[in-house]
Amino acid sequence: MQEIIVSGAAGRMGSTVVRLAHEGGAHKVVGAIEYAACPQLNNDAGEVAGVGRIGVPITAHIGPLLTGRVVVIEFSTPAATLEHVRSAAAKKIPVVIGTTGSDRKQLDEIKRLARRTPILLSANMSLGVNLLVNLLGKVAQKLGDDYDVEIIEAHHRFKKDAPSGTAIAMGRAIADGLKRDLDKVGINGRKGIVGERTKKEIALLSVRAGDIVGDHTVIFGGIGERLEFTHRAHSRENFARGALRAAEWLAQKRPGLYGMQDMLGLE
Question: Is residue 155 among the annotated active site residues?
């Protein structure tokens, strides 16, 4: 049985991970982490997740929990995630990171810490999404520059970052297939007299409304036809199941930076 620590245990994703781990029986939650001012601090993680008492209180301190063959699953904030990764790397504890919104400096440090402990970093833990990201790069390479690329993502009103990490991952896969730099050709939204669409640009457009779990549509628009690829998440369970599967896989790996593509054998 794989032991896990869930960071962000009172949040939407973290509590789903706790619930599925408890219900599935193949994983054991041995730690639950939240920020120091969280209203759920000291409450039982199982009760917060809706599965009843599991004897694991939500705490603000990860250090004492980093023992044995445990794996940390991160669904918190970029700053908290980095602090936890530092602590885990010092004790060579693997970390699965599903947190989004990290800046370049934070990501660079995570990459350096991966030299000391196994880290799996993914903007989206869904198996379906990661298969799609892999496919999009190949489609873009075959279609070439004659097709315009537009990426539309929709999430719930509470999501703090935009565009979504998944949309960015899709954009980067497509840009790589087209031999472009997404940081140079990516645009986020349009307003006013922007002129004719440039041939190289890749648009990432964000929608925030209600309780949308996560929708992503990629349009390859040519003259006379268009291809559309859509992934819709019906619930957060697919992300949580992917994270639990990633934790099992990562526990057997050497230090290094991995992604869901590695776990699925797609790279």
Answer: yes
